[in-house]
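Table S2 (continued). Query chain:
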Amino acid sequence: MVSPKHVCVIGAGVSGLAAAKAFSSRGHRVTILERSGDLGGVWEPARSYPDVQTQSPKDLYRYTDRAMPDAYPEWPTGPQVHAYLADYAKSFGLDRMLRLNTEVAGMARRADGKPGWTLALTTKDGKATNEDFDFVAVCIGQFNEPRELHCPGEDGFLAQGGQILHSSKYSDPTLAKGRRVVVLGGSKSATDIAVNAVKSGAREVTIVMREPVWRIPYFIGGLVNFKRILYIRAQEEMFPGWGASAMARLAHRIAAPLIWANWRGLESLLKAQLKLGPCKMVPKERIEDGVNCSVPIATPGFYPMVADRRIKAVFGTFDHYEGDSIVMSGGERVGADVAVLAIGYKLGVPFLPAAYQQKLVDADGQYRLYRLIANPDLPELGFVGFNSSFCTVLCADLAANWLVRYADGQLANQPTAQAMRDNIEMMLHFKRVERPAAGVYGGLCVAPYHYRHFDELMADIGAKNQKRGGLAGHFQPPDADAYAKFLATAPDYRATA
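Corresponding output:
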């Protein structure tokens, strides 16, 4: 028998809502804590920049138990995603579990000796309280705290009227009108903002990035939705995976020439379609060596704007500010009125005690998480949304369904603490030695191994049906409705008092 728990879900974004739904549906009492004034996480309107849309098609960017509206476009906009999340929360009663404007300032093991944690909470009006929980699901994800970049001379730049802001604060496109905008970063948010600045009437737009990276258009060759090429099991199997047997390694070596030809063909197609040569933006890295969560979608209009110099591309990074200019690491001086820092977010769980942070994160920044969800040395604690991917919502949904069963001891393959530690060590070796690209973002990236990751979660959960079979199944992208059916074949249970 499973006893009901009081579960704290920290964060009300995509992953927090998934965790709240999973735990509440199993009979647990759930409290969702969100430090901002609205749900949605990165999709909260106050954090969304103009023209933002998903990188994944809508049939991949959804929960297993709720499709996006048919009226939504293939790649929904930020306001549409927020509306979808708000409707999801209301439909399943998650909004009634939500405490907004409540920040977790710290946490410690319960002093009463019971399993669980005591959380130190601070509200927007400054009220501080402590509250006990039996289990905590950390759902702040990887896009929680904006990175900072401070360079010499920035005080003078600001004093003479310049502006410096993180990309998450670029919410008003009129900011760019008639001004010289410099965007630092090579992510999709960087190229989105650069294109928006041009459209918003900026006097000059410059994008600064370390080096060119491969970007994927929404339709490869202008015809084929990229999900049907890069999100399929057949393509995934071209990457050597972890824990491969000697026979599997041999098979991969035999197939190496065909795999090589596949990637060179894709590179040639992208070079031609995006006109990377004329833009002087051909990446040095082989595409297969860098496929992970940092591979961005090509913002429509970006490469044409680079080609005709509406966007000037500079390779390097900021060295210092000087007057109304930014001097690059290569010595190039760029005039600027607005500097937008599209440099990502800090990884970490700042409210976790230092002793436990050391158990969670190694010195090189790699996370010690079994299935990217749990650590055996962090009891009554789990993580949802840390298994980042191109299918973010589906990843969070399946992780949440795994975590509630793990917390309740109801996984069909409930791992021992030692088995978890051994698996963590094996995965860390894979990310550090066999495939360094898998170590990006602290190793918290599933791509390009979506199916492999989902297969492991489904097997652990005990789903009788775990994947679509036959040849057709190898050439189909992940399907949320299919995973809903797979989850329905797993053993059912409910916590009872």
